[in-house]
Design brief:
Distance between the termini: 42 Å
Largest sheet: 8 strands, mixed
Mean pLDDT: 91
Order of helices and strands: EEEHEEHEHHHEHEHEEHHHHEEH
CATH architecture of the largest domain: 3-Layer(aba) Sandwich
Structural class: alpha/beta
Helix content: 25-40%
Radius of gyration: 21 Å
Number of strands: 12
Strand content: 15-25%
Number of helices: 12
Length: 334
């Protein structure tokens, strides 16, 4: 069995821009523009980047909640974009999602028991569904008697636990976590992150974890991918990426992480990127980051860099002509 559970190859989705009475297509919003990723069994791959970079869109593409414009999505080695509706229904048992907003992701008209049992009914799971719902509630830290209550009777953290219980009901192999703690209080965030880690150990889950909080991503992720304007700029194991970022954009993101030590916070160098994020409907030529990059050169404006191995690490990949720590040697060769 392959070590890779999920793989995307040149995955793209371009949303058309229409104008006029005839609604003619005058352009495209390149929300995801050629993403290549691998998620290994049992690991947590963190996805980070600024708002609007395509993280949540990528998650929905992988689940086929959106249909891609181009590319492949391989789950256990098979391209699920070739699956019909019946085949996708079968594969959805192995691919679940925990949404960002615990208030909007639960039907307010249904009881908690009905919400959690919904995937069991949809996939005609064997066994007593009520007993399974009670088990799931206990697993995520809620009480069995909560199954008769409605979502509005719970706090935000409790609602997210209900969403997690629904996601693990069918014992999936992959769970996509789309900013699952960003709407919660800091103290509750820690509890939910610990719950994710406990469930991963108990059920051998694989996570694709999307978040804005880089400290949370560092804590929970085995590997991290950095996205910018629909593309992946750098991937590495968590320890390597946070210790020695190679891409200038990654370096700027990490410099914004608050430090608990006031002295270190005052003395460290904060990297502030100039300008605004370009529009995905009209991305820059060459490297999409070159208009904000502090080390950009003429080559960056004319050519798009490919993802390549970073010096000294076969598992550290960066899409940059002049990576941090390798700029002098790269410049000498060019």
């Amino acid at each position: 069995m392959s070590d890779v559970l999920l793989e995307t190859r040149n995955l793209k989705v371009h949303f058309p821009i229409t104008s006029g009475a005839l609604r003619r297509t005058v352009g495209h919003v390149k929300a995801v523009d050629g993403v290549n990723l691998q998620v290994r069994r049992g690991e947590t791959l963190g996805i980070v980047g600024e708002s609007g970079c395509g993280k949540s869109t990528l998650a929905r593409l992988i689940l086929r909640l959106l249909e891609p414009t181009e590319g492949e999505i391989l789950f256990e080695g098979k391209n699920i974009l070739q699956y019909d509706r019946r085949q996708m229904l079968q594969i959805r048992k192995d691919m679940q999602i925990v949404f960002q907003d615990p208030f909007a992701s639960l039907n307010p008209r249904k009881t908690v028991g009905t919400i959690i049992a919904e995937p069991l009914r949809a996939h005609k799971a064997e066994g007593n569904h009520q007993r399974r719902v009670r088990e799931l509630l206990e697993i995520v830290g809620l009480l069995p008697e909560h199954m008769d209550r409605y979502p509005h009777e719970f706090s935000g953290g409790q609602r997210q636990r209900i969403g997690i219980a629904r996601a693990i009901a069918l014992k999936p192999k992959l769970i996509i976590c789309d900013e699952p703690v960003s709407a919660l209080d800091v103290s509750i965030q820690a509890q939910i992150i610990n719950l994710f880690e406990e469930l991963q150990k108990e059920f051998n889950l694989t996570y694709l974890f999307i978040a804005h909080d880089l400290s949370v991503v560092k804590h929970i992720s085995n590997r991290v991918a950095v996205m910018y304007l629909g593309r992946v700029l750098e991937t590495a194991d968590s320890e390597s990426l946070y210790a020695t970022p190679r891409h200038p954009y990654t370096n700027a993101l990490l410099s914004a992480i608050p430090l608990p030590d006031p002295i270190r916070e005052r003395t460290r160098q904060r990297i502030v990127l100039k300008g605004d994020v370009p529009s995905p409907s009209n991305p820059p030529s060459g490297c999409t980051f070159h208009v904000r990059c502090p080390v950009a050169q003429q080559q960056c404006k004319e050519q798009a860099p490919s993802m390549s191995h970073s010096q000294g690490s076969s598992d550290h990949h960066v899409s940059c002509f002049f990576p941090i720590g390798e700029i002098e040697s790269k410049g000498a060769r060019t």
